């Protein structure tokens, strides 16, 4: 049996390693047109910013190491130019020498990855100060440019993971960064109200953020000196980073009739097999599927690529591993803020037809008396079943462990009430007695049963439609005087039982406090007093004011 893998980053090398672990009988060869193998694409921004001192840290293994460890032949700087699926042959060009050769396979794996997309205005042209962030050569070129040319200004096009990471790193290096994003928010995979928190952090750090903006003209011949936007603004710049996403490298797949999925990546089954016999696809060239909806999803991440590679290597050598789908879990650091997401967003859940409960939970990551810092969890659950569908979190500390706990819970079909019953580790330096995850489960479960929540968005819609509402601010008079919800009346919680007599129990009522806890207590009082319909404003006045700021 001869296994040939095309591509040698995360997925391709995982295929080879797992196949060899399962059998010593197979011949295994890997071809890659790049110079490096098994490198960390995700670490490139941190090398550019000097957090990673040596490029060797991103390329810990080479072809010789793989040969010695796994008896796998890896051929770098070799491009597979054609696949003959009938003869099971490959045409290959040695990029160093120009020599052509033919190789054969019994099992073929496409791990051809993805390539950066290039905005039309930059396509087909080259400048010495325009960079993409995809491989080790890119990393070395950008860092060398920063060190030798010492740019003062940078334009970064694209506000996804790579764009935000490069923004952080270049800004820390003292470069004035302008972040240009085509859509009306940064981080398009998040809901706008959570993405706004990221935008706010960027602006606080001195980043100029241009939304709903595209580059329509590039000024400069050898080097770009300025870019012109669709707002007719000319932005001077010393360098440009293109971080506008990636597209799967499907040329070879299309040539041999492999079916592409709805995401335009290669369609595979749970064993990573394509529709062509003895051909597998893994990593950024292949689509996955949602654990929640079962529908195709494309999230090109190294973690998923490694998993796919292991599954394919196992399947082709008689193993039983199958791909179980993904939640699209991701996390990024934006200066001192961590931003994470898993499962469905509010928008995605509604598009899938779910009737959802939405919770904004603002809680410290650990005990206040040990320096706890607020994090915000936006969680959604299906009203019909109680199942948790997704979460988004922003904060300084503890974001990573909370998103991982929730992702694990969603994977095993947890309901909101199940989150509350998790036995999580507690000590004051690490968590609060009622961890933010536990509180998320408790409050979501309450919202599904007796204590409905209302989001700032829905409250503003009701106000705009002039629906009859009585809005109760349950905070102190001092807090109310500083900032409040429009049309709210101030009845501190301690006075509510007595003053409730002057309220109309048949009118739709909204209670709120600063973040949600006291508002919930006020909601309970009014419900116990027989009020018909009482909502607690999710995330309280703090969340409401942030939403209003976003809409301004």
UniProtKB/TrEMBL annotation:
GO terms, molecular function = oxidoreductase activity
Which Pfam families does the record associate with it?
Answer: Pyr_redox_2 (PF07992), Pyr_redox_dim (PF02852), Rhodanese (PF00581)
Note the superkingdom of the native organism.
Answer: Bacteria
InterPro entries the UniProt entry points to: FAD-bd_OxRdtase (IPR050260), FAD/NAD-bd_sf (IPR036188), FAD/NAD-binding_dom (IPR023753), FAD/NAD-linked_Rdtase_dimer_sf (IPR016156), Pyr_nucl-diS_OxRdtase_dimer (IPR004099), Rhodanese-like_dom (IPR001763), Rhodanese-like_dom_sf (IPR036873)
- What cofactor(s) does the depicted protein rely on? FAD
Q: Which UniProt keywords apply?
A: FAD, Flavoprotein, Oxidoreductase, Redox-active center
**Domain Rhodanese: start-end pairs:** 465-549
- State the similarity comment: Belongs to the class-III pyridine nucleotide-disulfide oxidoreductase family.
Q: Which named protein is this?
A: Rhodanese domain-containing protein
Query: What species is this protein from?
Result: Sporolactobacillus terrae
